[in-house]
Amino acid sequence: MSLIDKKLWKNFDWPLFALIIVLMACSLVFIANTQAEPFTGEEVTLLDYFARIDFELVLLQLIFFGVGLAAMVVILFMDYHSLRDLSKLIYIINLALLALLFIIAKASRGVQGWFAFGDRRFQPSEVCKITLIIMSAKLAAEAHDRDGGIKTFRDLFHILAYAFPPLILVMLQPDWGTAFVYVVIVASILFAAKLSWKKWLVLLGAGLAALPVMYFFVMEDWQKNRIDVFLGLAQDTQREAYHLDQAGTAIGSGGLTGKGIFVPGAMAQLNLVPEDHTDFIFATIVEAIGFIGGCAIMLAYFLLLIRCLYLAAKAKDSFGSFLITGVVGMMGFHIFENISMTMNLLPVTGIPLPLMSYGGSSLLTNMIAFGIVLNVAMRRPQKRHMRMTNTAIDLE
After folding, report:
1. 280 vs 46, residue with greater confidence
2. Three-state secondary structure along 1-19?
3. Based on CB atoms within 10 Å of each CB, which residue in 75, 132, 283, 382 is the most buried?
């Protein structure tokens, strides 16, 4: 059914779209906050504020959002069932891109995960999250529609067989943060597809057994050192905890209501928080708007996820429901991991905060993901209205 059909607009989920716009507006403000030069005088005007802000990253983020919005519109024109038909082709192309990284891409900060195009970079592992959602949702829906859920190990292994190749390629980059996102995506869809607790025990046992093997034989030394420092098993001789220390100081200095935006002496303006516009942007947010503001941001994310779960429950078929479930798993883990690592509750993994951290690949992935959610929502069953006539009651 085409988007031109006005009936589809009746199911367009404006509350979800409004939350996306609000979070993006916050992103632009707080990225600008991290790019402002510190003030030395006490009395400043509004023009002084704008004169001291480097808008380059803000404009780039706005461009990335525009590209993502265009991608969202294209997706809305499609019937989401076409994604199921194209799933294998999309999977093969994305898998080829991940493999090609090891041939032509150069490592950046120890990770071989980006294609460079001049000053811009593209991260195929980000878009592969969408690919994995589509493929896993398709296979889970086939099993669910046939048997009422994933009843056999054959169906389970079928899904895992498609999940492992991109997972292994990303782990070899090595980008373990993204690899964990893949695991959560698949796990969330398996949960929605009613995987039995016995099979969950098998998966959990296999995962626990693999942990020491990965730690001793697969992880790089810097990755193991980051975990050891977090667990208190090693001294921080390489300053692995510097990011966490600075982020914690910024969060603590924000207090209950925050220092304010573009405030002289703030750690955001003094560049004292590493990656303050990307991985650790939440620390500068709390510094600016305090504990109350940070809670407001987390509430917005909570409403975003709850709205998506509501739309998953309203989907007209299992494939649509599983698509949204995969998006919720991806977004939920990103939000939980990013905020938790910022507060030193989890090890640093380099996972960005959705719709908030600066970055083209992650923002494009987020917009495509929400485009899929809105697509499924628009094509859910129409509400039936009763119309009284002189002779009968018609349903339309």
Report:
1. 280
2. CCCCCHHHHCCCCHHHHHH
3. 283
